[in-house]
């Protein structure tokens, strides 16, 4: 499921966004993002190996900070970034499905996006076994199909990287580092695996193994597709078609049939990505509710808490899919995720590193890399889209202030936390 979430967002929704910032070096941005993600995963693996649970990130934050506003606020940021990812991938689904009809934008995009989110809700209502089996089958289809696309595109181009021949714009170091924010967002699906500690066999070992395997698989697939897209299109062409770059690359490389197959593959990949993400975020919100870290209202609904959080997730994701475009949705998700990730690393370093046997150097390296990427990304967005920076800062501040008002303390006393 972690692999399925990553591939759904990273390939189809973010390839064009990364190329827009990194230029011809955009395949390397995936490698750089994977390196940062590898350092970040260290905190989650060490904590999950010590305390495997279905709480995932909520558990990690509570173990570090206690049940206070810092832990609750950071956990809620993660949940919101996951909901944002759902709307991002849902709009990507709609964009690809409409490509054969030469429809670019318009009311059908949000309508189809909301439709696939509702589909994910219906499958989730069927139960965990249905979600797990569907996600497994879809992940296999995605990995195989996308891998074949990359190989075929590179082969048909005669191993020529067309993107490298485009000198139309100078791409600086800041742009490359900023593009890593999107690359990191493309890998953040590994965090959904931390929510499965109560279901995975031998979770003290296998949660970490699953995280590293999913990241490794996605690195290989992302690079293959990045070179495949870059072999068919110049940077200007990739940027112009950034919301549907794989479909655009498929037609010159593979013809009309390849184009249609890529559209079908994108629809399958993004739909299953939304499904897995809805499952993970509803579980996380239910766990936060059970931990009394976020307020909850039934709004007259019957059934268990997770059924309610499914509804909340679908409503919020649908709202974002209607009112925001792909670029802004991706940017907002990157801001929320990077801030949450830094809170996790600092918490593990400050409160738990000795208990779990973690290396302080690795933890501080992960924290520093996140900070560098966040600063570069913010600098780029202040130039190109300052409004989204305002939205992100306002959202982050509001989350922590509201949690402080709800919980009446920033950090829980350590003695009470241990109790």
Automatic annotation (TrEMBL):
Pfam families: AA_permease_2. Keywords: Cell membrane, Membrane, Transmembrane, Transmembrane helix. Gene3D superfamilies: Amino acid/polyamine transporter I. Its main location: membrane. GO terms for molecular function: transmembrane transporter activity. The keyword Transmembrane helix applies. The chain crosses the membrane at residues 25-45, 65-85, 105-126, 133-156, 168-187, 207-229, 259-286, 307-324, 330-349, 361-382, 388-407. GO terms for cellular component: plasma membrane. It is a multi-pass membrane protein. This is Amino acid/polyamine/organocation transporter (APC superfamily). It comes from Allosediminivita pacifica.
